[in-house]
Amino acid sequence: MKIKHAAIWAVALLGVSFQFAAFSQQNSKPIINPPPTAKDWANLAKLPDWSGVWNPKITDQDMQAKTNMPPWKPEAGDLIKFQLAEEKAGRPPPLFVNCLPEAMPAWMLITHNAMEILFTPGRVTMLGESDGNRLRRIYTDGRPHPDDPDPTFHGHSIGRWEGNTLVIDTIGVLPQALIAISEAAGVPNNGDMRIIERIYLANKDELHDEIEIIAPKVFTKSWKTTRIYFRQRARKYDIVEGVCLEGYFAPGKDKSGNDIFVPIQHDVGGNRIPPK
Q1: What is the pTM of this model?
Q2: What DSSP assignment string belongs to 21-86?
Q3: What ranges make up the beta strands (E) of the chain?
């Protein structure tokens, strides 16, 4: 009987030991977002001034689309040629009419909307004007990419400062995210894409984003391009709220007189269908 009780106690103690070991291992992992120190906040003052509202240089986007075509694989290249021909004929294929985020890298490549950039300890945050879905979190606290990141529209971005240049490495972008050269021409990246950016002030009010895209499913080799943003300082230029889906609804009333949104019918091209 004593032997039986001793065996039971041994098993119980072994279970407690395993639980304690698992607890210790779990709590020994580094904290992902440690609280910032006074030094962390002070170090922000040493970074370049990227405050204000930044607008893309659309004329440069258009020029790049004509003079710096990505190295498309044949099938992707054929689709781009068709899309560009349709655009020239006045029938532009609607790529961004479903209120999904433009995603990376299309946001930085072809956006026509303003953005602002916020510096906080361990992170740079980019906020786009056109829709609440346009948000990039770039971690600068030294963390690595996750071993198996969950794919998202903007991917997982880590950055480091090389002098006054922010170097960003982005992976984990959804394969459905478009590599777009205009709002009417682009193809899905189809997976395994990596985006490397070098962002810096070319002069006081001009921000350059040197972009390298590695997309082995649709490119024959990596593609490098640059996008330019200029700063607006006047008070009338400010980031405003933009909700894409708001264009799919109109103000209305329910049976009780409450203010509600009523769906608006759209055709397959995203255009509103006028009421009969």
Answers
A1: 0.84
A2: HHHHHHHTSPPSSPPPPHHHHHHHTTS----SEEEE-HHHHHHHHHH----B-HHHHHHHHHHHHH
A3: 53-56, 115-120, 123-128, 135-139, 156-162, 165-171, 178-182, 185-188, 194-203, 206-214, 223-232, 249-253, 259-263
Residue tagged 């030294």 (tokens): 142
Q: Which residues contact 9 (CB under 8 A, 6 or more apart)?
A: none
Decide if 101 contacts 130 (C-beta within 8 A): no
Name every residue whose Cβ is closer than 8 Å to that of residue 128 and which is 6 or more positions away in sequence: 107, 111, 113, 114, 115, 134, 135
**Per-residue pLDDT reduced to its tens digit, 206-239:** 999 999 999 999 999 999 999 999 998 876 777 8
> Where do we find the tokens 């984003």?
209
* Phi, psi of 154, rounded to the nearest 5 degrees: -105, -5
Tens of pLDDT, residue by residue over 150-187, are 999 999 999 999 999 999 999 999 999 999 999 999 99
Residues 6 or more apart in contact with residue 160 via CB below 8 angstroms:
140, 142, 166, 167
**At 10, which helix (H) or strand (E)?**
helix 2-27
Spatial separation of the C-alpha atoms in residues 199 and 165, rounded to whole Å: 6
- Cα distances from 233 to residues 47, 79, 120, 203, in angstroms, run 19, 40, 21, 14
CB atoms within 10 A of CB 88: 10
- pLDDT for 6 equals 55
Length of the chain: 276
